[in-house]
Amino acid sequence: MSSRRSGGSRITEEEINELIGKLQSLLPESRRRSMGRASASKLLKEMCNYIKSLHREVDDLSDRLSALMSTMDRDSPQAEIIRNLLR
Amino acid sequence: MLALHFLRALVRINQTSDPSRCIVAQRSRRIKLAAYASIALAAGRRRAWSRAVLCSLHGRRACRVRALSRRRVSSGKKAKGVHPTEQREGGGQVGELRRLVPGGRSMELCTLLEEAGSYIQCLTAQVQLMNMIADSMSK
């Protein structure tokens, strides 16, 4: 963001709309489509929902990775790949 | 960068967890913390949300001391936007976003939206990375 406002002056509607456009582009296509015409409140709601779903995905993937790691053999090809990547 | 941090953490977790004693849920929690640490490290300290994540992972007391000394040094710059009497909208969607974005409670609205955007980008990348790793481990 180029403009930094001083004291208590409010940001303009134009700046908000610009932000809305940029933030909307961060959401996946499926969510953008379901939003329809973007308004600030719809975008905020979608952003909140998306962040919550990302948190849930991190939780689920952590569980999945933990389960996979317990079955992963140290000498398996996958372990070798990871060791090579980290060299 | 993100992949490097996360893979290193995974290897460490794998090496330090005793399979006979370590419960899957415990390891899952460590993996989750490693995931958030990785995205914060990859984003660096220029983002408020990443600093907040690193703070909560490393302990609150150390961060309060650092934050106090930082505020004294940079009194003129961004501090104007964090005026204590400037009302932080606490209700509705903005309030919820503040709760979801690390460090969001003390941000002014414009900053909050920027930080949320950055946070979403990094979380998305992390999820993609974890999916890739899990898929390759399942083969």
From TrEMBL, chain A:
Pfam families assigned: bHLH_ILI
Highest taxon, organism lineage: Eukaryota
Keyword hit for Lyase: no
Keywords of the record: Growth regulation, Transcription, Transcription regulation
Domain BHLH as annotated: residue spans: 1-54
Family the entry assigns: Belongs to the bHLH protein family.
Protein's UniProt name: BHLH domain-containing protein
Automatic annotation (TrEMBL), chain B:
Location of the IBH1-like N-terminal domain: 5-58
Record key words, sorted: Transcription, Transcription regulation
Annotated transmembrane regions: none
GO biological process, one term: regulation of DNA-templated transcription
Pfam families per the UniProt record, alphabetical: IBH1_N (PF26576)
Domain of life: Eukaryota
InterPro entries membership: IBH1-like, IBH1_N
Region (Disordered): 74-93
Name of the protein: IBH1-like N-terminal domain-containing protein
Protein source organism: Colocasia esculenta (Wild taro)
